[in-house]
Amino acid sequence: MSTNNSSRTGRRVTDLPEVKRRRRLENLLCTARRVAHLAAEYRSHGLDEQFQLYLLQLQVEQVLADEFPDEYEEHIGEWVEEELASEHHPMVTAETCSLCQAISAHKGGTASTPLAA
Ligand SMILES: [Zn+2]
């Protein structure tokens, strides 16, 4: 008796429905962008969390590269540019930086903050 496998290959199972795949891709792209942004900001401020964020960034990018190699290739260029754009000199306050915004909000921001009750 010979068991032949060729008869079982008739039906191909699609691993994930296209909709789910696209949603996963969008989430990953969004996360990758956000994490790269945060990593650049924390790096600009010389905070220790930058290393964790950097590792997280690498992990997200690795998942994207594994699961969506084409999209990864397509976006990696803009991410690098955006990441560089969100970095700033430690002595400079950047309007686009969420940490700078938080710091200036904490300091009271504008000099003439009305404290009327
Ligand atoms: Zn900043």
Summarize the structure.
By secondary structure, the protein is mainly α. The chain contains 4 helices and no strands.
Written description of the protein model:
With 117 residues, the protein is an all-alpha fold. It has one domain (18-104). The chain is built from 4 helices and no strands. The protein has helices at residues 18-44, 49-67, 69-86, 98-107. α1 (18-44) runs antiparallel to α2, α1 (18-44) packs parallel to α3 (69-86) and α2 packs antiparallel against α3 (69-86). It is elongated and about 55 Å long. It starts with 17 loop residues before the first helix and ends in a 10-residue tail after the last helix. Zinc ion (ZN) binds next to α1 and α4.
Task: Give unreliable regions as ranges.
Answer: none
Tell me the Rg in angstroms: 23 Å
The biggest beta sheet, please? none
SSE run: HHHH
Overall body shape: elongated
What's the N-to-C terminus distance? 92 Å
Mean pLDDT: 84
Counted beta strands: 0
**Structural class assignment:** mainly alpha
List the total number of helices: 4
Q: How large is the share of residues in beta strands?
A: under 5%
How many separate domains make up the residues? 1
Subunit organisation of the chains: single chain
Unique ligands: zinc ion
Instruction: Report the helical percentage.
Output: 55-70%
